[in-house]
Design brief:
This protein has 202 residues and is mostly beta strands. The chain has two helices and 13 strands; from the N terminus they run βββββββββααββββ. Strands 1-2-3-4-5-6-7 form a seven-stranded antiparallel β-sheet, covered by helices on one side. A hairpin with a 6-residue loop joins strand 11 and strand 12.
């Protein structure tokens, strides 16, 4: 949930690792969004957001876990767990038997190393056409004119626009990745913010 609406409802991978004095959870949604929660224990977690580090409330229920935080919008991630083990995991293109613990270790070992060393950890998401742009979902529902300042402050570059039926579409180029983002505005408010084909930003 993001700001009271369902931002994503689908499958994800969920990994938990404890190394020394650090507990870390890595949740990767099927839309490519990756969230990393870490802290000295499961009740003292934080998450890196585009607006800085935010404290996370974490609760463990019999069949699901809930992570809640606020980065200007209330966010809530509920993960229902289905245990999946792969006894024939492949690492570096060579088959080997592996137990769940080493699977988790291999998957999030690099992340834990970054957390412990204090190095910044970057998360990426695929620019699949039609996929939501995770760092801009807080702007959905905002007034177009007011939200444009947020886009430019994040480094997005305006690349043009078009009108279709009762909606207008503006195209923005994402900083660093140079991916193209389409924002649909109806009745003066942002209705959706998704990746689109790069040619829309040419």
């Amino acid at each position: 949930m993001s700001g009271g609406y369902a931002a994503f409802n689908g499958h994800c991978s969920f990994k938990h690792k404890k190394a020394g004095s650090v507990d870390a959870y890595v949740v990767k949604l099927d839309d490519g969004t990756e969230l990393s929660f870490s802290g000295p224990n499961v009740q003292a977690l934080s998450v890196q957001t585009y607006d800085g580090i935010r404290n996370v409330s974490h609760s463990i229920q019999p069949d699901h876990e809930v992570f809640s935080w606020n980065d200007g919008e209330p966010r809530k991630l509920s993960v229902r767990l289905d245990r999946v083990e792969n006894p024939d995991a492949r690492f570096e293109d060579s088959a080997q038997k592996a137990d769940t613990g080493s699977l988790l270790g291999a998957a999030v070992g690099a992340l834990i190393g970054g957390l412990i060393s204090g190095k910044p950890i970057t998360t990426t998401e695929p620019a699949r056409e039609g996929a939501p742009v995770s760092d801009l979902q807080s702007l959905v529902g905002a007034k177009g004119g007011q939200a444009e300042g947020t886009l430019t402050s994040k480094g997005y570059t305006y690349r043009g626009g078009t009108k279709l039926a009762d909606s207008s579409f503006t195209y923005w180029q994402q900083p660093t990745t140079k991916n193209c983002v389409a924002i649909r505005t109806t009745d003066g408010r942002y209705q959706s913010i998704t990746y689109t084909k790069k040619s829309d930003c040419n």
